[in-house]
Amino acid sequence: MIASGRADEQLPVIARFEVRYRNYLAPDGAINRKLPAFASDTRLLVTLYRAMVLVRAFDLKAVALQRTGRLGTYAASLGQEAVSVGVASAMREEDVLLPSYRDNAALIWRGVKLEDILLFWGGDERGNRFSGPVQDFPFCIPVGSQAPQAAGVAYAFKLRKEPRVAVCLFGDGATSKGDVWEAMNFAGVHRLPVVFVVTNNQWAISVPLRLQTASETLAQKAIAAGFIGEQVDGNDVVAMHAAAEAAIDAARNGQGPHFIEAVTYRLGDHTTADDAARYRPTEEVQARWKEEPIARLRSFLAGQNVWSKTEEERLAAECQQRIDAAVERYLAVEPRAPETMFDHLYAKLPKAYAAQRRELEGGS
């Protein structure tokens, strides 16, 4: 019998890895470490703040519309607005966004009209023919399936030698899907210009992170795929913008993929079809409100004497006016004719479907 134990302890270490953490602003708006250069541009920071306030107000209205039967199931981003805003604000127009179903803020930043988003969540696919960059992908409902698509987009960029980047956002639950791992593995092997951003909001519907993975971080999952994984304070929009900007620039310059784990917290329900109080203690949620991103940046801006109560009130009124106008336009859209449900199923409709279409049109 060969004894192991002590002998195994002498085995050489052949590799070591690390995951770095990025944060600049404390929950009270205080500065934790030296800010990145762009943070001296207070106009940019105010723009980021305005974008987060708008999407929070928009989410509130969308939930109200759903509760009154004028919108379908809706996924709000309460508490994690800094992730989508921070990432989208670091992208160029020609880059490609592949969002999850909770990334309304990113679409809005990229120029998508509020009424287009409402149209989609109202069950009308015309909402996916939105007003943002034509190359951006629509909302992705199947969890994690946008990751292989992002790898494919990035592969096309590399083949064409185009200095463009695919930016893919998904939730922590998606990291438990094979789609995400396969996309990351492919991206790492081919050193593709793609940035994967996981919004770690601690909950995949009712499943907590500890039941999804035994990994200390989600960022370390990138190491196995051969590229950098970074953990970022997802409630700090300055940190999110800085991390996304660095990752996107590196990918654009031929340095391969990057993985960002944005650590935040979902303050609301998973969707309007969910009741998070059934699986999440109220005390936990209340404690997390102290870390949320909007109050954090507002405190910082106020401390820099570039934001006041008057400006806050003016912004709230502007957001409400913009949202109310979008809701009016959404509600004024005429419903599609029922037979149009067949229009994009096949290049040529099979006989059975063609007959059904004629029946809906009132024919025989």
TrEMBL record:
<dbReference type="InterPro" id="IPR029061">
    <property type="entry name" value="THDP-binding"/>
</dbReference>
<comment type="function">
    <text>The pyruvate dehydrogenase complex catalyzes the overall conversion of pyruvate to acetyl-CoA and CO(2). It contains multiple copies of three enzymatic components: pyruvate dehydrogenase (E1), dihydrolipoamide acetyltransferase (E2) and lipoamide dehydrogenase (E3).</text>
</comment>
<dbReference type="InterPro" id="IPR017596">
    <property type="entry name" value="PdhA/BkdA"/>
</dbReference>
<feature type="domain" description="Dehydrogenase E1 component">
    <location>
        <begin position="49"/>
        <end position="329"/>
    </location>
</feature>
<comment type="subunit">
    <text>Heterodimer of an alpha and a beta chain.</text>
</comment>
<keyword id="KW-0560">Oxidoreductase</keyword>
<dbReference type="InterPro" id="IPR001017">
    <property type="entry name" value="DH_E1"/>
</dbReference>
<dbReference type="InterPro" id="IPR050771">
    <property type="entry name" value="Alpha-ketoacid_DH_E1_comp"/>
</dbReference>
<dbReference type="Pfam" id="PF00676">
    <property type="entry name" value="E1_dh"/>
</dbReference>
<dbReference type="GO" id="GO:0009083">
    <property type="term" value="P:branched-chain amino acid catabolic process"/>
</dbReference>
<dbReference type="GO" id="GO:0004739">
    <property type="term" value="F:pyruvate dehydrogenase (acetyl-transferring) activity"/>
</dbReference>
<keyword id="KW-0786">Thiamine pyrophosphate</keyword>
<protein>
    <recommendedName>
        <fullName>Pyruvate dehydrogenase E1 component subunit alpha</fullName>
        <ecNumber>1.2.4.1</ecNumber>
    </recommendedName>
</protein>
<keyword id="KW-0670">Pyruvate</keyword>
